Amino acid sequence: MAEVTIKNLELSYDKKHDVLSDLSMKVKNGELVSILGPSGCGKTTTLRIIAGLLKPDHGNILVDNHDIGRTPVYKRDFGMVFQSYALFPHLTVFSNVAFGLKMRHLSRHEIQNKVKQVLEITNLTNLAKRFPSELSGGQQQRVSLARAIVVNPRVLLMDEPLSNLDAKLRVEMREDIRSIQQKLHITTIFVTHDQQECFAISDHVAVMNHGKFEQIGTPQDIYYHPQTLFVAHFVGYENFFKVEKQIENNEYQVNHQVIHTDFDHSYEPKYLTIRPNEIDLHQHKNNQMNEFNGKVVNFSFLGGSYRYMIQTDLGLLQVDQNDKDKFDVNDSVYVSLNSQLVIPLLK
Ligand SMILES: Nc1ncnc2c1ncn2[C@@H]1O[C@H](COP(=O)(O)OP(=O)(O)OP(=O)(O)O)[C@@H](O)[C@H]1O
């Protein structure tokens, strides 16, 4: 168990384009922090640097305030779980898990005890004598997790460990990972591009875009209080309004219209945003704040609700509405934006 600090990491593979720039974060003892971002943003590169498989051009990795920049991979005492299970095909589950302990020259008795304990935690006891080719993908990933934790690593690094599994198994495995991680209190850094997965298991989430962390916060912070256009878009916000100017304290001019936000913010927003399911669609004018008239351009069925495209003076809005009030193309409608759910974005 350990606290990991990443300080001002920078890396360029070709010495021309930065893949990582000025990357910093802290993972507290026993926490699970996810790095969330789209393909190619630099997640694996970051994890490889933390693991010691890659040297950064600048910056430091500290474990419990000690710089480990010169510590080789095998001395970092980190457990790693990757997308590919990388098990030894000629060894049984038991021997795969025991491998790291044998390398550390533990006694036969100690190895037996430790492996037995970890196979129980990872629910693999009944499969101990099987070979990897006799296991499902989920079971193989469980073995690679068991192999990583059996050596009591100070830190666990996981790179998209669930991406080869089907949807149902992914959900089961992520719950197992979280419960094992909490039981053992292992500091864990988990890389994923899947928002739901990372929200379900993380204490904190670092959202990455083009080699930079755009926002670091709890899953709730990121979901309800995104601070940038990129983060908001990544977590499902769809309607973005460029602020032309501030009119009053919480009133902003957008497309020559006025939008009011009651959302607490201490910065000057560049954009305002709201989720499609947080806009109310109605037939009659209610004379409310943030109410605009519009016309239905088209709609599609989402299952339980409809997604409407509404042309308004603010621009084209996406609005989700349950199927109790159904509207048709060319219907005249009103949209109301709940001022508490209009989020101001810094950039
Ligand atoms: N060995 C390498 N040499 C040159 N460029 C590389 C190398 N490895 C990765 N890159 C580039 O660095 C960038 C970041 O790659 P990285 O694998 O860290 O992204 P990622 O966020 O993990 O993506 P994914 O989710 O697709 O795995 C990408 O543009 C990639 O093409």
UniProtKB/TrEMBL annotation:
The Gene Ontology CC terms held by the record are: ATP-binding cassette (ABC) transporter complex
The keyword Nucleotide-binding is assigned to this record: yes
Q: Where is the ABC transporter domain?
A: 4-235
What are the alphabetically sorted keywords of the record? ATP-binding, Nucleotide-binding, Translocase, Transport
Provide the GO MF annotations for this entry. Answer: ABC-type quaternary ammonium compound transporting activity; ATP binding; ATP hydrolysis activity
Task: State the EC number(s).
Answer: 7.6.2.9
Q: Does the keyword Phosphoprotein apply?
A: no
> Under which main EC class is this enzyme filed?
translocase
Entry's InterPro entries?
Answer: AAA+_ATPase, ABC_SmlMolc_Importer, ABC_transporter-like_ATP-bd, ABC_transporter-like_CS, Mo/tungstate-bd_C_term_dom, P-loop_NTPase, Transp-assoc_OB_typ2
By its UniProt entry, which PROSITE patterns does this protein fall under? ABC_TRANSPORTER_1 (PS00211), ABC_TRANSPORTER_2 (PS50893)
SUPFAM superfamilies on file: MOP-like (SSF50331), P-loop containing nucleoside triphosphate hydrolases (SSF52540)
Which Pfam families has this protein been placed in?
A: ABC_tran (PF00005), TOBE_2 (PF08402)
Q: What is this protein called?
A: ABC-type quaternary amine transporter
Species, as recorded: Philodulcilactobacillus myokoensis
What is the phylogenetic placement of the source species in the record? Bacteria, Bacillati, Bacillota, Bacilli, Lactobacillales
